[in-house]
Amino acid sequence: DVKVTQSSRYLVKRTGEKVFLECVQDMDHENMFWYRQDPGLGLRLIYFSYDVKMKEKGDIPEGYSVSREKKERFSLILESASTNQTSMYLCASRPTDSPLHFGNGTRLTVT
Amino acid sequence: DQQVKQNSPSLSVQEGRISILNCDYTNSMFDYFLWYKKYPAEGPTFLISISSIKDKNEDGRFTVFLNKSAKHLSLHIVPSQPGDSAVYFCAAFGNTGNQFYFGTGTSLTVIP
Fold first, then answer.
1. What does the DSSP 8-state code read for residue A109?
2. SS3 for B41?
3. pLDDT of B52-100, one tens digit each?
4. Closest partner CB to B99 (pick from A58, A99, A102)
5. What are the CA-CA distances from residue A5 to residues A26, B95, B103 (Å)?
6. Facing B44 at nearest CB: one of A9, A40, A102
């Protein structure tokens, strides 16, 4: 069974802090994704990666960056956290031609 | 612009009856469609999918129907059970972008 693990379930940070959200998958999937989920807006893609050291912008990349130094790990970085980045963050992975497998999410609150 | 739309934010159904969740899309290049189920404080879990070469796919109590001409898909749950109460997201994928597009979700409540 595929396991996508997000390092934190809940996180509270202050405005202006640099925030790291970590995600690890154990199935050697090529593709990894970061989404945020907000009420009424569904899941919106922030960044994705189809290989180590490769990244592509999604629909809402502003204020975020990513890092993929190893195939199993995909990190989302909030360079300077702002209150409008308070959200549920979901990491996902997939092999080619298969559905996304999601982690349990990180509920981030920026105060 | 939202390429995948779920126009009903919520739906309530009696236990044992049929639940029908709807989804519309705008991009004719989408060729793979999925439904995900999400409980609070958990990540979405994959439920069922359908390729654009089919118009129906069934898995136990869950059936997905695809109407390509109308750019519409629906998820039928029969019979509905209280454990089906969750938020359901539809998603669409087209090979041109390696990206899934999600709807805004429909919150289903199955009343015992």
1. E
2. coil
3. 999 999 999 999 999 999 999 999 999 999 999 999 999 999 866 678 9
4. A58
5. 9, 27, 24
6. A102
